Amino acid sequence: MSRPLHIYGGRVVDPSQGLDSPAAVLIVDGRIEAVGLGVEAPDGAESIDATGLTVSPGLIDVHVHLREPGGEHKETIASGSRAAVAGGFTTIWAMPNTDPPIDSPAAVGYVRAAGRAVRASRVMPIGAASIGQKGEQMTEIGELVAAGAVAVSDDGHPVHNSGLMRRLLEYTQTFDIPVLQHAEDPGLTPGGVMNEGPVATALGLRGIPNAAEAGMVARDVLLSELTGGHLHVCHVSARQSVDQLLWAKERGLRVTAEVTPHHLLLTEELVRGYNTQAKVNPPLRVEEDVEAVRQALVEGVIDVIATDHAPHHYDEKEREFDDAPFGINGLETAFSLCMKALVEPGHMTLSGLIDRMSCAPARIMGLDTGTLRQGAPADIVLYAPDESWTVDPARFYSRSRNTPLAGWVLPGRIMRTIVSGETRFEAEGDA
Ligand code: DOR
Ligand code: ZN
Predict the structure, then answer these.
(1) How much is the CA Rg of the chain, to the nearest whole Å?
(2) Number of domains in the chain
(3) Is 75 helix (H, G, I), strand (E, B) or coil?
(4) CA-CA 20 to 30 A from 80: which of 96, 111, 354, 394?
(5) Which residues surround ligand 1 with Cβ inside 6 Å?
(6) Which domain range does residue 413 map to?
(7) Both 333 and 408 in a single domain?
(8) Are 329 and 336 in contact (CB under 8 A)?
(9) In angstroms, what is the span from residue 253 Cα to ligand 2's centroid?
(10) DSSP assignment, residue 272?
(11) Is residue 371 part of a domain?
(12) Do 200 and 137 sit in the same domain of this protein?
């Protein structure tokens, strides 16, 4: 049994309890024992001086691509979960689009066990929705759940077949897990590599229209209404998708949604010059879309922020734009990019941001973390919201360096990440 841990001198921001004030946090046996100004260290406790820092429930990311098995040159379960704690994430959900895909109980069990062994972020496996992620035959969802799967998804690809989507939304209710949908109508995206519009035309690149996403969201929302199943819409990028989500929320459907840090700030303008670091699916859109998804997040029409951390090797991103893979490496820049997109310009408070990156993911997915309430697992992040740093991909814990943010100066520095009362990341220097 480990020593009690006493974190003192910091500002505690825990929106799950409406807390934003100076306070100490006491951890006993890996769980939160008490939070408050007068909370003292018991004899023999280990102390952490958090003076000048903010203390919040650890961040939770429900959309992360680790590349193991099959793509270990891009990321492993170990490197990805270390990148996660460096970014303040205490829990990550691993997407199943590996090679081969995570579509069997053995594969789910492997991801879970390998994740535990690293002792960095918690790693929770998402099982494939269809065998081989081929979009045809449903996986044995009960067995995947028994092995530790927390959701199912064919992400990387959409579940295109409406009948399959209907059955997924029906069947997953037995196990109370969500279906995570990469909303894209493939009939509208052949050869598409960036947002459809004048910039794509000027660059001579094929476009991906907003309707490819919003049309699929519309269908899925109706299938959620039909079945009562929990639909979670991944990486919303288009303003028309927000309209569909609003419709669903107004009817009280079991529909939740996420937006990535990059879709909250960046636009297709970054693609000019054939910048493959800005090639991502769904694509970076236009300012109107960015404003719409940002507003939706502020209003709760979009529930959470998720990174869609998609590591890719340098050589692959060096290819011609058409041939380079989609994806942005997100775990280690997510918090700071959101500080820049949301908190700095005053769209959201820091507490609002912590809600969308920690409390809300826990709430919509039914996790017992994302809070500093007494008895909760002590998953905590300590950070300096006002300190800025320069993004240097060479220093990433991730095995890949694919980001359009190299050289950017961003606010908000993660100083320490604690999982179950154990420090799993500490920034070099102080704290
Ligand atoms: O940009 C993306 N990268 N979008 C996806 O849907 C898949 C992901 C990946 O696996 O690289
Ligand atoms: Zn996706």
Answers:
(1) 21
(2) 2
(3) coil
(4) 354
(5) 65, 97, 155-156, 182, 280-281, 308, 310, 325-327
(6) 5-55+376-426
(7) no
(8) no
(9) 22
(10) T
(11) no
(12) yes
